[in-house]
Design brief:
The protein is an all-alpha fold. It contains 9 helices and no strands. The longest helix is centred in the first third of the chain and has 33 residues. The radius of gyration is 19 Å and the shape is globular.
């Protein structure tokens, strides 16, 4: 929500008018989000690793390469999923600023507690599939002591497809809405 609010509408409008293919404009926003997500994912993975290596024992066990690349992939995909939820909460889709922030926050909280919702009310499983698989990945990670690529690739693929669908849907909705 906040990243999209940094754009100045008059400058965006000028760029939008001069573009031959308007979907490039919205693709550029998602690519910017991807780079910002990747930057913060790198910081989230390597800052604790550097503290562990140079500052003392931060982790209980030896850090292996699969921990690093799985953590990086997980943080990046989850950041992209959350960032795309924020892009959906922009003023061209949801006019009220307070409503946009409230819906984005609600969406994020529901994604985290999705498992508890499904356990409490079985029929809601048919509605919670629209939420990102953050809860599913968290429980799969927590079930193992070490990262298991064989058991986790399905969750990463699920989240990657989810993010790709959100990107395509965002571009499509914004093309219909126009500037």
């Amino acid at each position: 929500v906040m990243c999209d609010d940094l754009h100045i509408p008059s400058i965006d409008g000028t760029i939008f008018v001069k573009m031959r293919r308007t979907w490039y404009f919205y693709l550029a926003k998602t690519l910017t989000l991807a780079w910002v997500s990747l930057l913060f994912s790198l910081i989230s993975v390597f800052a604790p690793l550097l503290i562990h290596v140079f500052g003392g024992s931060l982790f209980d066990r030896v850090v292996v390469f699969s921990d690093i690349y799985s953590g990086l992939a997980l943080f990046w995909l989850v950041a992209m999923s959350g960032g795309m939820a924020g892009l959906f909460a922009n003023y061209r889709i949801i006019r009220g600023r307070k409503a946009a922030i409230a819906l984005a926050a609600l969406f994020g909280v529901l994604a985290i507690v999705k498992g508890a919702i499904n356990n409490a009310a079985e029929p809601l499983k048919f509605l919670t599939w629209i939420l990102p698989p953050v809860y599913d990945i968290s429980t799969a990670y927590g079930a193992n002591k070490y990262f298991d690529p064989g058991g986790m690739w399905m969750y990463f693929a699920w989240l990657a497809v989810y993010v790709a669908i959100k990107i395509a849907l965002y571009i499509r909705i914004m093309q219909k809405r126009g500037f």
